[in-house]
Specification:
Length: about 80
Amino acid sequence: MATYSLANERLRALEDIEREIGAILQNAGTVILELSKEKTNERLLDRQAAAFTASVQHVEAELSAQIRYLTQLAGGITDSNLGKN
Protein backbone atom coordinates (compact mmCIF):
# COMPACT_ATOMS: atom_id res chain seq x y z
CA MET A 1 0.00 0.00 0.00
CA ALA A 2 2.91 2.39 0.67
CA THR A 3 4.17 1.93 -2.90
CA TYR A 4 0.75 2.92 -4.23
CA SER A 5 0.78 6.03 -2.04
CA LEU A 6 4.31 6.92 -3.20
CA ALA A 7 3.27 6.48 -6.83
CA ASN A 8 0.28 8.78 -6.31
CA GLU A 9 2.53 11.34 -4.65
CA ARG A 10 4.91 11.23 -7.64
CA LEU A 11 2.01 11.64 -10.06
CA ARG A 12 0.69 14.62 -8.09
CA ALA A 13 4.16 16.19 -8.18
CA LEU A 14 4.24 15.77 -11.96
CA GLU A 15 0.77 17.31 -12.25
CA ASP A 16 1.97 20.28 -10.18
CA ILE A 17 4.96 20.65 -12.49
CA GLU A 18 2.64 20.57 -15.49
CA ARG A 19 0.46 23.32 -13.98
CA GLU A 20 3.54 25.41 -13.25
CA ILE A 21 4.72 25.03 -16.85
CA GLY A 22 1.30 26.36 -17.89
CA ALA A 23 1.82 29.36 -15.61
CA ILE A 24 5.28 29.91 -17.15
CA LEU A 25 3.75 30.00 -20.61
CA GLN A 26 1.05 32.37 -19.42
CA ASN A 27 3.67 34.71 -17.90
CA ALA A 28 5.65 34.63 -21.13
CA GLY A 29 2.50 35.43 -23.11
CA THR A 30 1.71 38.38 -20.84
CA VAL A 31 5.25 39.73 -21.29
CA ILE A 32 5.08 39.35 -25.08
CA LEU A 33 1.69 41.07 -25.17
CA GLU A 34 2.98 43.91 -23.00
CA LEU A 35 6.12 44.30 -25.14
CA SER A 36 3.96 44.59 -28.26
CA LYS A 37 2.36 47.75 -26.85
CA GLU A 38 3.69 51.13 -27.81
CA LYS A 39 3.94 52.16 -24.16
CA THR A 40 4.90 49.29 -21.85
CA ASN A 41 4.20 48.99 -18.15
CA GLU A 42 7.68 48.45 -16.70
CA ARG A 43 6.37 47.34 -13.30
CA LEU A 44 4.19 44.68 -14.91
CA LEU A 45 7.13 43.49 -17.00
CA ASP A 46 9.35 43.31 -13.92
CA ARG A 47 6.75 41.34 -11.95
CA GLN A 48 6.07 38.93 -14.80
CA ALA A 49 9.79 38.44 -15.47
CA ALA A 50 10.42 37.70 -11.79
CA ALA A 51 7.49 35.26 -11.66
CA PHE A 52 8.74 33.61 -14.86
CA THR A 53 12.26 33.19 -13.48
CA ALA A 54 11.07 31.83 -10.13
CA SER A 55 8.72 29.37 -11.83
CA VAL A 56 11.39 28.13 -14.23
CA GLN A 57 13.81 27.59 -11.33
CA HIS A 58 11.15 25.70 -9.36
CA VAL A 59 10.24 23.50 -12.33
CA GLU A 60 13.91 22.79 -12.98
CA ALA A 61 14.45 21.73 -9.36
CA GLU A 62 11.34 19.54 -9.30
CA LEU A 63 12.15 17.86 -12.61
CA SER A 64 15.70 17.23 -11.42
CA ALA A 65 14.32 15.55 -8.30
CA GLN A 66 12.02 13.39 -10.43
CA ILE A 67 14.90 12.43 -12.73
CA ARG A 68 17.11 11.54 -9.74
CA TYR A 69 14.35 9.34 -8.37
CA LEU A 70 13.82 7.57 -11.71
CA THR A 71 17.57 7.14 -12.16
CA GLN A 72 17.79 5.48 -8.76
CA LEU A 73 14.90 3.17 -9.61
CA ALA A 74 16.47 2.28 -12.95
CA GLY A 75 19.69 1.51 -11.11
CA GLY A 76 17.91 -1.13 -9.07
CA ILE A 77 17.44 0.81 -5.86
CA THR A 78 14.04 0.02 -4.34
CA ASP A 79 11.71 2.61 -2.88
CA SER A 80 12.52 1.38 0.62
CA ASN A 81 16.25 1.97 0.06
CA LEU A 82 15.95 5.49 -1.42
CA GLY A 83 17.68 8.12 0.63
CA LYS A 84 19.79 5.65 2.61
CA ASN A 85 22.92 6.24 0.51
